[in-house]
Amino acid sequence: MAFLQIISDNIVPLLVFVAIGYLLDLRYHLDVISLNKLTFFIVLPSFIFYSIYVAEIDMTLLNVFLMAFVQMFLIALAAWSYGKFRGMPVGKIECLKNGTMFSNNGNIGIALIALVFGNAPYVIDGETPYLAQAGACATILLVQMNMTLNTLGLYQAGKGKLTPRDAISVIFHMPVIYTLVAVFTIKFSGFDMTQVFLWPVFENCANALVSIVMLALGIQIHRSTIVFRDIDAWAGCTIRLVIAPLLAYLLLLVSDLAGLHLSPVLKQTILILASVPGAVNSVLYAVEFHNFEDFATELVMMSTLLSCITMTGVIYLARVLFPIVI
């Protein structure tokens, strides 16, 4: 039942927005460029500011935060190696890296962890004793994902069409980098943003991100030539949905050998989040820089659909590999 709930509560709503975007563009031929500008300059910065500001960041999970960087590097290495082996152009390699390094933790991952640790067998006498620790771990991983996706991911998307210097220049002309600096400064200064008149603006724009991004994905699918037969897209799905969880498992084994000894709850959370499909923002970045938009769209769409199967398997394996004594 939890598996069906994951699909109905998290996957299906995303696909509905995709279908709406597809049908609207079919009928009215929407202006996707303006939609992207709205996302990049208003909605996405608001989401980043809001999500990081409200997150309860547990500094004791610094090891988890650093482990996420190592895992991301290894995934990027796998994608780069495959791209080189296939003789891909630079732009497509960077597109592949964006579609595999970064996951949809914000839309799917956090809700998935809440469902896993908020349902049987982890409900004891009506309480969910493991949910707080799992949620804290998921939050720190979401912060790490937001930081890297909206800086390194943006750079990699631009790198396919621009020189590295020009790509860095583009990043500094986007509001994301300044949003990150502002939110961490305000958060750790102790200033209460919730009492400022702008707070509802951040909150409402943040809530709009999922619908706008998925509508844009639907528009892009309508305008793309997607046949689901691209071997490179299937390889990207394999990296994102199979190799990424495997790398997470190996890193957890290494962490035990290094004496970190994370709790079974943290280990399960890390492994499950490693199985989440590719980040939809990678499609927006590909569209913004006209960098293999069709490939980016196909990769993210395929990984989202296939994750209905692979995430279920990873959740089961996480319980077997890292059992929680109840």
Brief account:
The protein is mostly helical.
Keywords summarizing the entry:
single chain, 326 residues, mainly alpha, 14 helices, globular
Structure overview:
By secondary structure, this protein is mostly helical. Helices cover 76% and strands 0% of the residues. It contains 14 helices and no strands. Helix 5 (105-117) runs antiparallel to helix 6 (131-149), helix 7 (152-159) crosses helix 8 (164-172) and helix 10 crosses helix 13. The protein is globular and about 55 Å long.
Strand content: under 5%
> How does the overall form come out from the CA principal axes?
globular
Q: How many H/I helices?
A: 14
> Mean pLDDT across all residues, rounded?
86
* Rg (CA only): 19 Å
Structural class of the secondary structure composition? Answer: mainly alpha
What is the succession of H and E elements? HHHHHHHHHHHHHH
Separation, N- and C-terminal Cα atoms: 21 Å
Largest sheet: none
Residue windows where pLDDT falls under 50 for at least 5 positions:
none
Number of strands: 0
Helix share bin: over 70%
Write the layout of secondary structure elements.
Layout: H1 2-28, H2 32-54, H3 62-86, H4 90-101, H5 105-117, H6 131-149, H7 152-159, H8 164-172, H9 176-189, H10 199-223, H11 231-257, H12 264-273, H13 281-288, H14 293-321
